[in-house]
Amino acid sequence: KTFDRTFSLIWYVALDERTNGQIRYVSNDNSPEAGVYGETLGLGEFKVRFHPIKGRVLHKSYLSTVAPSLSKLKETVFAHFRVFSDSQGRRFIGLPGEMISQNGALPDEPNFIAIQITTEVNFTMDITYQSTSGYSHGESISKPPTAKEFTNSLQNKLAEFDRQFEGTFHLQAKGYSADEIKFAKYAVSNLIGGIGYFYGSSKVKSVYTKKPVPYWKAPLYTAVPSRSFFPRGFLWDEGFQSLIIASWDLDIALDIMCHWFDLLNIEGWIPREQILGVEALAKVPDEFVVQHNSNANPPTFFLTLDKILTHHKKELSVKGRLDILERLYPRLQAWFSWYNTTQRGEILGTYYWRGRNASSELELNPKTLTSGLDDFPRASHPTSYERHVDLRCWIALAARVMSDLSDILGKDSIKYYETASFLADNKLLNEQHLSPFIETYTDWGLHTDAVVLKRPKVTKQNFMRNQQPQLEMVRVTLKQPERQFVDSTYGYVNLFPFLLHILDHDSEYLGRLLSNLRDPNVLWTNYGIRSLSKNSPLYMKRNTEHDPPYWRGPIWININYLAIRALHHYGTIEGPYAALAREIYAELRENVVGNIFREYKRTGYLWEQYDDTTGHGKGCYPFTGWTSLVVLIMAETY
């Protein structure tokens, strides 16, 4: 073996700002493995040890110091690297041990310990975590399993996982190949493995505060879309993610939901993006940090509840799960009421997403972040009399699920039943959202397609005054907007009466929608349905000079899941479009599953979105949040 076939790995243990505890580095003659001993209020006493099993360790070093913040750990390590030489004259980059403070004393309580091990290739090491609380003084503590003993225990757990996976999703019984099943296990295990525990407070702004103020400090147990890129909770993501989690472990899904509803304020609002703690904060641009209590997010937990009430009804009667829903019920009522009071439109039965910036000069179409569909084109000029068809459908779904839940819990369901019936009335839906020109469901608002981004001219007067010219492109309206249906845009938003099963199964407009869905010049691709029609004016257009298209063409798996689920729903109700729905269902399901699997084989990852012309993964990766819905599509579990 040559020296250039070496590598160096660094592990760390750190205490965050709120933790009451201590840690220290340990390695001595009696216990030669590097390790960390610690004690915190939450964990008690513990030790983490590093056990070389195979291969030769060339150099071992560590850093024990005080880091200024959890968000500065990498910088702290980099600032303390040193060069060392061994007896053979080989040089290593390593860490200096315990750092002496300026007054010559060791830090009393280090909050950061990094352990670096440099080794040759073909190296195996086991890392053990062991709680040592509860042992009396002098009592021997058994060593945790390592090497072959641990390998055997791990194999037993893997076999247990395999049995539960097949018992849950039945992919082997459905005839999937070993590689396809391995891919599906990757998706589910990474989603479950990405569930984390966070603690901290959001920054919120309301009509009652002049500046952003801290929300109360609270824990949050939640899955995350991407551990490396989006390591935090998102309200509308979690409803989709919990569809898979509920299939795997209903109790975990209920626990996650309860944590989210512990963040409900007195008004019935939940911050849509949970940036809790300094680590999460370090990954978020400043513009997205402050949460506004007038802004919503799609109430996708009603999708989760709908699945639980439909497919897990028997399981609710054991382990006190109905008691959990009983305790959750008042918060769900408050949440539903908040949507119905803060997001309603000027006309009864209409709703619009708050949070659009009507004064924006840089955006081609002001974003609607609260809808979850960020830059999907809406009315060009935001107003208070907009009508958003997707939000109307979300509220209709929420009312129906609240009605069902009320019946199960023995509560009065009449107001929820009446609301659901009112919002599901296709005649009223057609009056408020069906464009008479193209006979499709659309938003309504103050709109013109004649908007462009242009770079302002630099005037001589600006130079004479020694002013910095404005070089960034700004929006220019070439034709005055009018109150109208936003029917030049066609994409995910227009599908929501279908996606959430609001559209009657025998409606002639369902047939028209299915035709648009299957049209390659509109939404259809060989990889899934694209987010915005190729015929729409803003298809794949940048929203600002620096803001590339996001929901303006790429394929997103959460909406494709809803589409496949809806096709399955309409295909099971006999009517004029059932056969067409079944035909499109089979083809779309095959396209989506096939492309995600091919991209996984090609790149090794699940992706945030997929290109609508090549099928290649786009956006951040690995993205084992709602893209993991591919497993439910494979299992045909809706």
| Overall number of strands | 23
Q: In angstroms, what is the radius of gyration? A: 28 Å
CATH C-level category of the largest domain:
Mainly Alpha
Which spans have pLDDT < 50 for at least 5 consecutive residues?
A: none
How much is the average pLDDT?
Answer: 92
With strands numbered from the N-terminus, the spatial order across the biggest sheet is 1-9-5-8
End-to-end separation: 54 Å
Oligomer: single chain
The helix content is 25-40%
CATH-derived topology of the largest domain: Glycosyltransferase
Number of helices, counting only DSSP H or I runs of 4 residues or more: 17
Q: Which secondary-structure class do the elements indicate?
A: alpha+beta
The CATH architecture of the largest domain can be named as Alpha/alpha barrel
Number of self-contained structural domains: 2
Account of the 3D structure:
By secondary structure, this protein is of the alpha+beta class. The protein folds into 2 domains: 6-144, no CATH class; 182-635, Glycosyltransferase. Helices cover 34% and strands 17% of the residues. It is built from 17 helices and 23 strands. The chain has helices spanning 73-79, 147-169, 178-193, 235-248, 250-261, 278-281, 301-311, 321-342, 389-409, 414-423, 426-433, 460-464, 496-499, 508-518, 557-571, 578-603, 630-635, and strands at residues 6-14, 21-26, 35-40, 44-54, 57-65, 82-85, 91-94, 96-98, 112-120, 124-131, 196-200, 203-205, 213-214, 218-222, 233-234, 273-274, 290-292, 444-447, 451-454, 474-477, 482-485, 609-610, 617-618. The strands form 9 sheets. Strands 1-9-5-8 form a 4-stranded mixed beta sheet, with no helix packed on it. It has a 4-stranded antiparallel beta sheet with strand order 2-3-4-10, with no helix packed on it. The protein has a 3-stranded mixed beta sheet with strand order 13-12-17, with no helix packed on it. A hairpin with a 3-residue loop joins strand 3 and strand 4. Helix 5 (250-261) crosses helix 8 and helix 9 (389-409) packs antiparallel against helix 10. It is globular and about 85 Å long. The relative contact order is 0.08. The model has no long low-confidence stretch (mean pLDDT 92).
